[in-house]
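does this look right to u?? aspartic acid version
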Amino acid sequence: MNQRDDRPVGLIYTGGTFGMQQSDRGYEPSEDLPQRVERDVPELHASGMPPIEWIEHDAGPPLNSSDVTPPLWYALANTIRAHADRCRGFVVIHGTDTLAYTGSALSFLQPAGNQPVIVTGASRPLGEPGSDAPANLLNSLRVIAAAVTSETGIVFGDRLLRANRATKRHGSYTQPFVSPVCDPLAQIGERIEYRASAGGERPADTAGIRATDAADVRIAMLPAYPGLDARTFNAVVGSGVQGIVLEAYPAGIGPGGDRAFVDAVAAAHARGVVVGAVSQARDGRIRMGRYASSTPLATAGVVSGGDMTREAALAKLHVLFAGGATPESAREQFARNLQGELTDE
Ligand code: ASP
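got this back:
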């Protein structure tokens, strides 16, 4: 990373509360965000701030992030890739509801190579009293200007989190994101205190997975719950998915004592459907075989996602298949630490 980089930071607006305005139908994304940012965030031009350049993407109009679908991840990645030489990093403005999914997908795609991609949003729209949008944007830009990281991160409030470790929690206006098993990569105050060791487990070879569109990849997510049975599982498999993220009980994985369910998992596995398990507990980790009831599911082909978040697990399976992985290689890579998203045991 070049400390005297005078290239701009690319800003990409996908929607979300950050740029919304009140309408008679409730909050809606607005199209004129660049002009409003220019007007409402004069600190953008303070000394030490990097130049910015707004970049169009071709994934459609700004959205409430509840309407984001995987094609947006790839459209964003393609846009970032196309501008990666001209920019020193990118800030993606996104709604908070699905921000951690998009951030995770971008972390696996690594479209900017060794340059940082920071995803941010806001809990209160720009221009409203007490809005956190200006501070989140300015802090994102400061992180890039400081050249402390080449990761895909989330900046919200005074923290930089690893995107593929973060998850949204409800109810905190200033800090809706937590990173339950990975300390924040940086604390953003008057200075930016980057903690290299917080991200220690990111492998050295961090080249991303090359995937340029969502292809026909379909990944489902299914929680384990009392009553989950073969019929429901088979209905999901029958919908044509290539992978299922099974949100497992914190210790017992799923109904491993239900022969029909185990057989259904084994049949799906034999057909090439990857069933990856992550824990329902936000700070949990899958431990296959710890309890005897999980062994039949492991034998049937359920692969452990370790301590990955649900967002990282879903995005990872999607990106792997979109990048052309076979079921065997998707299974192997799902369980392996690619971008710091899981802790090796
Ligand atoms: N509903 C909004 C969204 O995810 C919430 C937010 O941006 O905070 O787009």
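The longest strand covers residues 243-248. idk if thats expected tbh
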